[in-house]
Amino acid sequence: MKIAIIGTGNLGSSIAKGLVKNNTFSSLYLSDKNTTNVDAYKSLPNVVVTNDNELAVAESDIVIFALQPKHINSVLEGVSSKISEKHVVMSVAAGVEISRIEGIIGADKNIIRVMPNTAISIGKSMTCIAANKAAQDKVPMARDIFNQLGTTMVIPEDQIQAATVICASGIAFWMRLVRATTQGAIQLGFEAHEAHQLALQTCYGAASLLKESGRHPEEEIDRVTTPSGCTIEGLNEMEHQGLSSSLIKGINASFEKINQLKKN
Ligand SMILES: NC(=O)C1=CN([C@@H]2O[C@H](COP(=O)(O)OP(=O)(O)OC[C@H]3O[C@@H](n4cnc5c(N)ncnc54)[C@H](OP(=O)(O)O)[C@@H]3O)[C@@H](O)[C@H]2O)C=CC1
Ligand SMILES: O=C(O)[C@@H]1CCC=N1
């Protein structure tokens, strides 16, 4: 597979890192105005780091646009003459609808909207995928690529905004929960590095329990909450303070915001 990534910022460089780790491409072009994030890959075989977006598109079959929404139009316009029916154009830009991309490069082109998260750099992304009409037969290929970098789910395009909040912003939400747990542990007397390790491994264990057992979170909670014990005491206090409510409200605030971004 001849792959290009246009825009090697936070997400583009995370995708590059995951692809390099798996080494499943025949060539990989990494293009950005400033290539600092990916300069380390210059010396790898079959990897080209460049400032030339047109070259990257011309030399590739799959082109992943990892740009801020404000840059996507001008960059697509700049390379549009190089995009043919052989290309599969993938965009990770939050809030940028397929119809906007079709308006620039044409509805006859293969366009796939992909929403990974930054865990893609370690092969643990939850990646949601939606394709335009022309690219329906390219969906299995897109899944093959992103399944190597985590797990994929194909969803209707009108759910991509919601998936962005849960899965892409979700990384930040979970990080904050880990950080808050660490702060609690420090208050209980642990050194910061110990507190971090305790919080992290417990979070990992909780997620692994759900993944491996297939059980509902409440079932796992019931196993921990000794009657009149300390867990239910803490859990109920957290709920009185609005833990579930603030998470749900935060998710809704993010969703409102992403729906405004769409209009820009
Ligand atoms: N961060 C995340 O976790 C996630 C982000 N997204 C989405 O992915 C997209 C990218 O986000 P993120 O990686 O954080 O953004 P960044 O700003 O970190 O990366 C975008 C990169 O594109 C570069 N760029 C701008 N103009 C051009 C151009 N003309 N040619 C080549 N490169 C250019 C930017 O350079 P410069 O900085 O110099 O402008 C920058 O390096 C966004 O749309 C975001 O919504 C989606 C899921 C998760
Ligand atoms: O915060 C943002 O707007 C982008 C989209 C999801 C993750 N980062």
UniProtKB/TrEMBL annotation:
Reactions accelerated catalytically: L-proline + NAD(+) = (S)-1-pyrroline-5-carboxylate + NADH + 2 H(+); L-proline + NADP(+) = (S)-1-pyrroline-5-carboxylate + NADPH + 2 H(+)
SUPFAM superfamilies: 6-phosphogluconate dehydrogenase C-terminal domain-like (SSF48179), NAD(P)-binding Rossmann-fold domains (SSF51735)
Pathway: Amino-acid biosynthesis; L-proline biosynthesis; L-proline from L-glutamate 5-semialdehyde: step 1/1
Residues in Pyrroline-5-carboxylate reductase dimerisation domain copies: 157-260
Enzyme Commission code: 1.5.1.2
Keywords, comma-separated and alphabetical: Amino-acid biosynthesis, Cytoplasm, NADP, Oxidoreductase, Proline biosynthesis
Uppermost EC category: oxidoreductase
Predominant cellular place of this UniProt entry's protein: cytoplasm
Pfam family, one: F420_oxidored
Domain Pyrroline-5-carboxylate reductase catalytic N-terminal, residue spans: 2-95
Localization per record: Cytoplasm
Molecular-function annotations in GO: pyrroline-5-carboxylate reductase activity
Superkingdom of the organism of origin: Bacteria
Family according to the record: Belongs to the pyrroline-5-carboxylate reductase family.
Function text: Catalyzes the reduction of 1-pyrroline-5-carboxylate (PCA) to L-proline.
PANTHER family per UniProt: PYRROLINE-5-CARBOXYLATE REDUCTASE, PYRROLINE-5-CARBOXYLATE REDUCTASE 3
Protein name: Pyrroline-5-carboxylate reductase
